[in-house]
Amino acid sequence: MSRYFTDEHEWVDVEGDTATVGITDYAQEQLGDIVFVETPDVGSVLGQGDDAAVVESVKAASDVYAAVSGEVVEVNEMLEDEPGLVNSSAEEDGWFFRVTLSDKSELDDLMDEKAYKAFVDDL
Amino acid sequence: MRYLPLTPDDRQSMLAKVGAQSIDDLFVDVPEEARLTGPIDGLPMHAGEMAVEAHMKALAKKNHAAGDMPFFLGAGAYRHHVPASVDHIIQRGEFLTAYTPYQPEIAQGTLQTLFEFQTQVARLFGVDVANASMYDGSTACWEAIVMARRITKRGNAILSSGLHPHYVSVAKTMARFTKDAIAYTAPQLDAATDGQSLLDQIDDETSCVVVQYPDILGRIDDMSALAKKAQDHKALLIAVVTEPVALGAIQSPGEMGADIVVGEGQALGVGLQFGGPYVGLFGCKKKYVRQMPGRLCGETVDAEGKRGFVLTLSTREQHIRREKATSNICTNSGLCALAFTAHMTLLGEKGLRELALLNHKKAVQAADRLAQIDGAKLINKSFFNEFTLILDKDARQVVRQLAEQRILAGVSLGRLYPEEDSLAHGLVVAVTETANDDEIEALATALEGALS
Amino acid sequence: MSMLAEGRPTKQDADLNMPEQNAVTTHSGNRALMVDEPLIFETGSSDRSGVDFPEAPDVESRLGGLERAAPIGLPGLSEGETVRHYTRLSRQNYAIDVGLFPLGSCTMKHNPRLNEKMARLKGFADIHPLQPVETVQGALGVINELAVWLIKLTGMHGVAMSPKAGAHGELCGILCIRAALEARGDAREVILVPESAHGTNPATAAFAGYKVEDIPANSDGRVDLEALKARLGPDVAGVMITNPNTCGLFEPDMKAISDAVHEAGGFVYCDGANFNAIVGKVRPGDLGVDAMHINLHKTFSTPHGGGGPGSGPVVLSEALSPYGPLPFTERFADGHLTLVEEETVAERHPDGFGRMTAFHGQMGMFTRALTYILSHGADGLKQVAEDAVLNANYILRSLEDVLDAPFAHSGPCMHEALFSDKGFSNDLSTLDLAKGMIDEGYHPMTMYFPLVVHGAMLVEPTETESKAAIDDFVGAFRSVAERAKAGDELLKSAPHFAPRRRLDETQAARKPILVWTEPEEFAQAAE
């Protein structure tokens, strides 16, 4: 399994053709307490860069873009009752949705962990 | 100037502090050619309380106040007795001159009343949740249609012919810009509503069906079948209540399965006020709460664990969500919501039921009296406090003629539907607890005169 | 993701230092005048009422078989209990009547009581919107007279009176623009909005079906004219500009902006929320504005009422006036007034875009606003703007040595002064300063708005505050600002003396409780 990052503060885990997407620990820290996550419908087809999910803190609602394109095969239903998972475990239990990758070459443009860390340190 | 506390000396010393020679130095960013040098021409100068009061009173006197003569208008705005304490409560400066409760630690008064208001509205409508109010019934109705589009992701709204024509106009105005499709036809002067036709129109493209209860002609119809069919097609049933007092006597739309219930709250606490400000009521099933427009007040605790209230789910709102907000609504109708909730608290369940019963029975008496008149026919089999007569003359003329005799007879359908010749003889008459027997008899006698 | 990290902190700090306020406790938990009030659902009962009715006539019901069977669940209180309930609750509110209310961009000025008295005259309060026009000539007279004032004060051509509030007025203005463009067969899709705009602006444009594009601000906090010009083109329907802007500054290029937009075939919407700064001093019509809403509850002193009702008439240029909404008043040469509505629209207002609300707008606010305007007159209104601007500049210059004022270098402000949280230490934030102001007996300033300034604090005193009141306020503000810079830990747990300590907004949003429900033990006991 390999993990990629975007400059929009999302992480993407790839296993075979399936990618799991969430937001980074840095992002949850910036947003503050997460109170609601709106996940995409299972079966919907996302293009890279499309609005895929909405994450709400008390002060702001932010769009989560599709880091990679593909069909949504699963969403994290735990988030409905426990949006705080995004704060406590952003990069593990607080994942948002899974897609079947339609174009693996899109991964080439994403960052690895080291590059993302450097990116964040620069902000 | 009695409202401006700065003295000439104050102004001088303050100008010195800010380093300006004259007040105009503070307006330097205004291009010189756009700066006005003196008071705008052709407008009067300041005036004392006595002069202003005399001017306003002269204007007020030119109007025929409802309380001064027999009065039977409804059609979306109802005259009820408002207990004296309601106006006292809303004139408390701490309510009247407060802002939207953005600092909850020093706004618990407003917030708790909103929480009580939301609970009262939800219970009256028979739904799970209600918001902290909208501008009025007509705008609440449109917001409900948009909300249904957000939920169903479809743009075809079906409006009942019994929906208030102004509410229809508002929806049509907005739909022209949002590209929603609105299906609507004007009502027919018949005892039966268009319930069956609405049932036939619902399909898999329908976002919502909008039904007024009681409707513009005063008719009451069971909407359970509509709720069922809408649900089968994954469309929403929106019920519109323009006379909330009715719900003290008849089943709530929520009990019949409505998904969203909106209404005009003016009848309780607010008064007629020539059409505004009024208070829009908005409630829905719990599962749709995050799609609801407008402000919401929610319960929470403070840092010491004490119960308190805050505005919540505000990320749906324009000041945070900007172009992705559920609605552009900002100000709601806070003080009118307070008047509504205070009146409702005074009534309680017992008072509301008594008030509703009194309205209904007076209306039944009046309807039977007026139906005896030669040239007037009652169309309603069922109604609450408002019913429709077919006159054998153009009702607009009759209304004007009676107004000259200082009787405000009702709302002519010709005023509401000028383009529908078939409705020109319709007169909608509302009878509330404020009409006494003599006034009802005066109306009957005058109508007899006008129709003979 | 689009991350809006600006704004107030929302983390609940688990280990706050929460000092005991008072070692003395009471049996009730109350503290003298600070009394907790239960909900009506906890004290009222369904068989108690504060209203008496006569017996209903003995006739058969005709409710179509839909008689209500189930209880509604509405508690009632006697009149005395009701008055006490709301009076106690009212005492937990801050309000203009209680003290200076420096909420930037909200114009919390004194609400004259003559306004209230006039709105309650039965000739205004007790008339129905659908009465024959012959019976409401005085009411139409109020609407017409106020309309004339608004047109003259703004130098515009017409006015739509029916919008219910500022945001509703914005929508009215944008719909007029859209209707005018449609009338000439021009399908433009984009509305330009400066970064510093009120959040309602982009929300309104989107609601009306437009794509919204930001235009940047320059380092002086004003619209970047060159960037705006560069973006104009045949796809731009118009711009929405707030002037004076949300940084409290006048847009000196306003006329140039309007000319450029007109040149490119678009229209200029001006958000009039801040009109109080320029009323009687500048007419937006002279700056090329096509549409502007006026918040009667800001500039013209109608009460805010804890969040409405507002009122948002929209003044319109000659180009947009034919498209305004129904209904409106028309005065004939003989002084007789009529309403242009559905019946006469085809002949009198054929291009109008229709109705935005059921009736004629916020009549109760019109009577109040007209009363206010007549009290001030043309000379008094000019003085209003001058004193409002003077008070704000006095605050700006009285605080700029302790607080960062990002645009103070660029000259005077208009009616509000903007500060930032630069220089606060120990992780203290604008929110902490605001809560500290509550303990000092003030409603805080607007915070975290505009978004273009970090930890923004926007202070608007209005013209109805005396120099002494402002000096006291400045003293308190300086003290709290110095504590914030010194890192005073106690600010983090402020307010200490309000009816409530900081409230947990996270819990409220994660598990929304929006209506009261009977606690289970109650429900069981009742069975």
Question: In a few lines, what is going on in this structure?
Answer:
The complex is a heterotrimer of chains A (123), B (452) and C (527). With 123 residues, chain A is of the alpha+beta class.
Summing up helix and strand content along with how strands pair, one would put the structural category of chain C as: alpha/beta
Q: Main β-sheet of chain B, in a few words?
A: 7 strands, mixed
**Secondary structure: number of strands of chain B:** 13
- What is the string of SSEs of chain B from the N terminus onward? HHHHHEHEHEHEHEEEEEHHEEHEHEH
What characteristic shape of chain C results from the CA principal axes? globular
Identify low-pLDDT runs of chain B: none
Could you please describe the fold and organization of this structure?
The complex is a heterotrimer of chains A (about 120), B (about 450) and C (about 525). Chain A has a six-stranded antiparallel β-sheet with strand order 1-2-3-9-8-5. In chain A, strands 4-6-7 form a three-stranded antiparallel β-sheet. The model of chain A has no long low-confidence stretch (mean pLDDT about 90). By secondary structure, chain A is of the alpha+beta class. In chain A, about 20% of the residues lie in helices and about 35% in strands. The termini of chain A are far apart. In chain A, strand 2 (about 10-15) and strand 3 (about 20-25) form a beta hairpin. Chain A has helices at about 25-30, 80, 85-90, 115-120, and strands spanning about 1-5, 10-15, 20-25, 35-40, 45, 50-55, 60-65, 70-75, 95-100. Chain A is built from four helices and nine strands; from the N terminus they run E-E-E-H-E-E-E-E-E-H-H-E-H. With about 450 residues, chain B is of the alpha/beta class. In chain B, the strands form three sheets. Chain B has a seven-stranded mixed β-sheet, sandwiched between helices. In chain B, a hairpin with a 7-residue loop joins strand 10 (about 375-380) and strand 11 (about 385-390). The longest helix of chain B has about 40 residues, at about 335-370. In chain C, helix 3 (about 115-120) packs antiparallel against helix 11 and helix 6 packs across helix 7 (about 200-205). The model of chain C has no long low-confidence stretch (mean pLDDT about 95). The chains are: A alpha+beta (about 120), B alpha/beta (about 450), C alpha/beta (about 525). At the B-C interface, helix 1, helix 2, helix 3, helix 4 and helix 5 of B face helix 2, helix 3, helix 4, helix 5 and helix 6 of C.
